[in-house]
C-alpha cells in the first residue's frame, strides 16, 4: 500500500507481483484463503510485509512509534496482505472497479472490505489514541489539508505520499463522517478533507452574492467565510457550475448569471470615472446595443442624462455632473 503510485492498477501489479485468480477467495479467520480448488499457502511474515506494503515497511523501523510508517509496519505484521490490498484499493476506487480488477462481484469486495476493517480498526484506534481528538478539532474548519493533519506523523526518511495514504486509511476508519477528497459539485480537491460537506458548499455558494471581485477582494471574502488561505480556490471556481468565474478582459471574478453586467461594473470601478457604453463594449468585446440592454436593468449603474456616460450609483453626484453633464465620482 505504501509504495503505490497514482495509477489505476491493482496493488499486485504495482508491486510487480502477478495477479492470481484465487487472490480474493474466501478469507478464513487466520487471514488465509479457502476454496474447493487448491491455492497457494499464505506467505511468510516477511513476504507478507513485502507484498502488502512494499519497501517502506521492510525498511521501516522508526523510532517514533506514533509515526505513519510505524502504523504501516503494525498493520503489515498483523493482517493478511490480501485484506490490506482491498483496503488500499478502496481508498480511491469503487466496489465495482475493485471487483473488475480481481474478477469478483461488488458484493464479494464489500465482504472482504468489511472483514478487513474488523481486523484493522482496533490496531488503528490503539495507534491513534494520542491524537484522535486533535484530528477532530482540525476537521471542524471549512477544510483541512493533509499537510496539516499528517505532517507531524510522517517519518522523514520516507516519501510523504505513501505515508499520507496510510493516514487516509486511519482517518477514514476513526472518523467515518469525514470526507476525502473535498468535493464541490463535480470537482475533486485531492489532499483536502472536510467534516461537513453541506456547510462547505453553502459557504462557497455565498460567493455568488459578492461579485464582481478582484483577486484581493476575493481573498478578503474567503477569509471572512473561513476558507483557509492555502485552499486551492481557483481549482474549485474553475468548475462549470461555480458561483464565480474569472473574466480576463475585466480582470475580475464575475457571476455567471450576470456575466456582462458584472464585467462592466468591474471596469467602472477600475477606471474610477464614468465611461461611454461604446468604450465598455469595445473593452469587453460586446455589441453596444446588447450591453446597454443589460446595463439598463442593473441597479448598480445609471446613465448620466446629458453626457450619456455610464456611472455607478454609489458614486455621489458632483457639481461638474450637474452643470456640465460629466461626473467625477466621489467614493
Helix and strand topology:
Elements: H1 11-14, E1 26-27, E2 33-34, H2 45-52, H3 55-59, H4 68-78, H5 81-89, H6 95-102, H7 106-128, H8 132-138, E3 144-145, H9 146-150, H10 160-174, E4 182-184, E5 187-189, E6 192-193, H11 197-205, H12 215-224, H13 233-237, E7 245-247, E8 252-254, H14 259-271, H15 277-284, H16 288-295, E9 301-303, E10 310-312, H17 319-324
Antiparallel strand pairs: 1-2, 3-6, 4-5, 7-8, 9-10
Helix pairs in contact: 2-5, 4-7, 4-10, 5-7, 6-7
Task: Tell me about this structure.
The protein is built from 17 helices and ten strands. It has a two-stranded antiparallel sheet. By secondary structure, it is mainly alpha-helical. The chain folds into three domains: 11-129, no CATH class; 187-191 and 196-243, no CATH class; 252-324, Arc Repressor Mutant, subunit A, CATH 1.10.10. It is elongated and about 85 Å long. A hairpin with a 2-residue loop joins strand 4 and strand 5 (187-189).
Strand proportion: 5-15%
Main pleated-sheet profile? 2 strands, antiparallel
| Separate helix tally | 17
Query: What portion of residues is helical?
Result: 40-55%
Give the distance, in angstroms, between the N- and C-terminal Cα atoms: 60 Å
Low-confidence stretches: 1-62, 322-331
What's the overall average pLDDT, rounded? 79
Main features:
17 helices; elongated; 331 residues; 3 domains; two-stranded antiparallel sheet; disordered C terminus; single chain; Arc Repressor Mutant, subunit A; 8% strand; mainly alpha
